[in-house]
Structure formats: structure tokens, C-alpha cells
Design brief:
Order of helices and strands: EEEEHEEH
Strand order of the largest sheet: 4-3-2-1-5-6
Structural class: alpha+beta
Helix content: 25-40%
Length: about 130
């Protein structure tokens, strides 16, 4: 099961910024989604995460076996992405970072990223469209 997950996207000029976090909520067994869309203006929004979503995401991350990225890309514009997560069994911690486009050797990560976008949309759509 996921013990924590952070995914953030930040443009070089700090214009675009989003943060998604998943963490346990106390000892109840519930998990909390935290989302912020805006480095300076956005306040952290909170929602309870559906257990089946958490299990599906944990399952996908558990079976990922991505090679280390051997080349580094950076540019003057675009977005830097970071995904960090920990799993409880077996104890696993991973950190992936890339600029602009997901590297070809990490394409297996795309379904996880798509699922995170869906979680943001469904959990925080009122916040997304009110600004």
C-alpha cells in the first residue's frame, strides 16, 4: 500500500504550479488527497481518497520496474515534473523527475500519471473551475 505520494509540476517561470499529495489520515486507515493549483494564490485543498482508488494506484506502482534515466534534459521553458512515492510492502521508495515530456524508457508510468490527473479532476473539480 502507498505510505505517501507527492506529484508536482512546475514551470521554469513558476507560472504553472500544481501539487498533489496522498498520505494516511491519522490511524483510521483513511487516506487524504491534498491538492494545490498555484504557487502563491492557491490554498491547499483536501479530500478523502476512495480505498479502491488507493489500492489500484498502489498495485500499479508496485509492479513498475523502470530503468534509471541516464540522460538529463533541461530547457529554458516547459515544465519540470517530479513523482515521489513510498510503498509499505515490500518497502520501496522511488523518485522520478523529468522535464517537459515523459522519457521513452518511462512510458509505463503514463497510466499512473493519467490516473493522478483523473483523481485531481474528480476530487477537486469545484476548486479547478472556480478560479
Amino acid at each position: 500500500m502507498i505510505t505517501h505520494l507527492n506529484f508536482y509540476a512546475q514551470s521554469i517561470d513558476f507560472e504553472a504550479h500544481r501539487v498533489l499529495g496522498i498520505r494516511p489520515r491519522g490511524t483510521s486507515g483513511d487516506y487524504e488527497l491534498m491538492f494545490q493549483a498555484g504557487l502563491y494564490s492557491g490554498t491547499m485543498q483536501h479530500a478523502t481518497m476512495n480505498t479502491s482508488d488507493l489500492e489500484l494506484l498502489s498495485h500499479c506502482l508496485h509492479f513498475l520496474d523502470l530503468p534509471p534515466k541516464t540522460t538529463v534534459q533541461i530547457g529554458l521553458d516547459g515544465v519540470i515534473y517530479n513523482l515521489k512515492y513510498s510503498l509499505s510492502s515490500p518497502p520501496t521508495e522511488r523518485h522520478y523527475a523529468w522535464w517537459s515530456e515523459l522519457p521513452p524508457e518511462w512510458q509505463a508510468l503514463q497510466p499512473v500519471l493519467d490516473r493522478l490527473d483523473e483523481l485531481i479532476f474528480h476530487s477537486f473539480q469545484n476548486h479547478l473551475f472556480s478560479e
